Amino acid sequence: MPTPSSARAANPALAVVALCLGGLTAALTQTLVIPIQSELPRLLGTSAANAAWVVTITLLSAAVAMPIAGRLADLFGKQRVLMVSDGILVVGSLVCALSDTLTPMLVGRALQGLAMGFIPVGISLLREITPPHMAGSAVAAMSATLGVGGAIGLPLSAWIADVADWHALFWVATGLSVVILALVRLGVPHVHDAQPGRFDVLGGIGLAIGLVSLLVGISKATTWGWGDARTLGSIAAGVLVLLAWGFFELRQADPLVDLRATAQRPVLLTNLAAVAIGFGMMAQSIVVPQLLQLPEATGYGLGQSILAAGLWMAPAGLMMMVFAPVSSRLMGTLGAKVTLMIGAGVLGVGYLVAVFLMGAPWQLLLASCVSSAGVGIGYAAMPTLIMDAVPAREAASAVGLNALTRSVGTTLAAAVMGTLLTSNTQAFGGLELPTETAFTLCFVAGAAAAFVGVAITAAIPRRRAELVRVGSLRPEAADAR
Question: Quick one: DSSP state of residue 251?
């Protein structure tokens, strides 16, 4: 491990800004094509079913990339992996910007998804390169970029698509990625934190196959149907491959993921809570824009344009960033466990507010801001709980796995919300639109997921060091235990 003096960045503020902007840019690319999703079949000269993979492939590659990037960072150094991840984002964005057909677009979007490994690696590096008084706020801010990037990506991409050719979306992403590459190279120190070991190639392949199969089944369940043989077969195959992968990993001297450490109660429960909270975060991103854009003639739709809906959602994304330092202060006084419970609770309250306040755009804005405040608080606490519970040499891979579990939660949310919205419809102008009851059920499901996250987090044991830090236990008592 590097000594504290050698690990510190010469300008920690610049390093934090570089990493947060990098995380923001990587997350932003995930939602970049949503405003033009309905136009993709025409723009790429393909079918609607094929065009849907432009969104799905990014999700799949991101899920695979996060734990693998974390392991590579532990083996070869975090700053190196950050540079490679951002370089992949530059290439992927450039390929998309030059694409007019489906195949190169899918290649570019897959590369953009692989760049999501930047976020967990950056989070784990921040503790090494920032002074102690900055570390908590820095980790909180970068953790929030997972939600903020997606939230601000919607209005930004809607505006760009409205005023320019759709290729401009990817030229902007390319430019941002090049700037981040320079900032990371100049502002983020290369800490000599590489650990001895080897990369588990077979483990990486097995994890990729299992995750892709499982997530394809979940993400396509709304289109194929939950009872369709393709859905059930894909999910079942994914589960079986992941079980076999787990047995394989337990027998490796240098596994891709240390499953024994992952099975420890603090890590396991934090990751389970991440699924629930990730579900809660994604639900509003799917449901609120649809409700905002439904015609007013339905009696409950709010008649907003794509751009207006994105603008109504933008303050919620900023709320996540605003509450990141609040989360840091809460962790310093109450501990990461209680902070995560507060975040999940506030997220759930936001959905309950939406159940009763969805008659006007400003009401949904209020509910979204409450929910997003909970996300900002909770997302910052999760990596802290993980890094406190695992050895420093495994920090990046453990945070990467935690990011993956959040991704599983968001994928599950997309499938469940889609099912609720398509199974409760009414005829309107020749179309089948979700009913008001469908939106209410979605908000209730989001609240339920968040409160499940509270219950899971409550079962996480608090470490003695944390009890001392928050004043619940005297140091001498902790030493005696």
Answer: T
Which residue type does 190 have?
Answer: H
User: What are the residue ranges of helices labelled H in 29-101?
Assistant: 40-44, 48-51, 53-76, 78-97
pLDDT digits (tens, 9 = 90+) for 389-418: 887 777 778 888 888 888 888 888 888 888
- Cβ(310)–Cβ(288) below 8 Å: no
- Report the phi/psi class of residue 106: left, alpha or beta, with left for phi > 0 and alpha for psi in -120 to 50: alpha
3-state secondary structure at position 166: coil
Closest among 235, 241, 201 to 218, alpha carbons compared: 235
Q: Which two structure tokens, joined as six digits, stand for 25?
A: 């840019």
Tokens 């999760």 belong to which residue? Answer: 382
Question: Any alpha helices (H) in 100-194, and if so which ranges?
Answer: 102-114, 118-129, 132-163, 168-187
d(C-alpha 143, C-alpha 31), whole Å: 17
Task: Check: CB of residue 386 under 8 Å from CB of residue 126.
Answer: no
The pLDDT value recorded for residue 194 is 62
Which H or E run includes 210? Answer: helix 201-219
Tokens of 200: 């588990």
| CA-CA-CA-CA torsion sign (332, 335, 337, 342) | negative
pLDDT of residue 395: 77
Structure tokens, 304: 């907003």
**pTM recorded for the entire structure:** 0.81
Phi, psi of 150 (to 5 degrees): -65, -40
Backbone phi and psi for residue 87, each to the nearest 5 degrees, phi listed first = -60, -40
Rounded to whole angstroms, how far apart are CA atoms 447 and 453?
10
Q: How far is CA 335 from CA 129, 270, 342, 479, in A?
A: 22, 14, 11, 19
Q: Are 450 and 374 within 8 A, CB to CB?
A: yes
Two tokens at 435? 């009913």
d(CA 324, CA 327): 5
Instruction: Identify the band that residue 440 occupies on the pLDDT scale cut at 50, 70 and 90.
Output: very high
Mean pLDDT across the stretch 151-161? 77
On whether the CB atoms of residues 431 and 294 are closer than 8 A, the answer is no
**Orientation angle between helical segments 53-76 and 201-219, nearest 10 degrees:** 150
**Under 8 Å CB-to-CB from 220, ≥6 apart: which residues?**
56, 230, 231, 234
Six-digit token pair at 248? Answer: 């394989």
Write out the DSSP string of 391-455: -GGGHHHHHHHHHHHHHHHHHHHHHHHHHHHHHSEEEETTEEEE-HHHHHHHHHHHHHHHHHHHH
Token pair recorded at residue 119:
């976020």
Between helix 229-250 and helix 201-219 the angle, nearest 10°, is 160
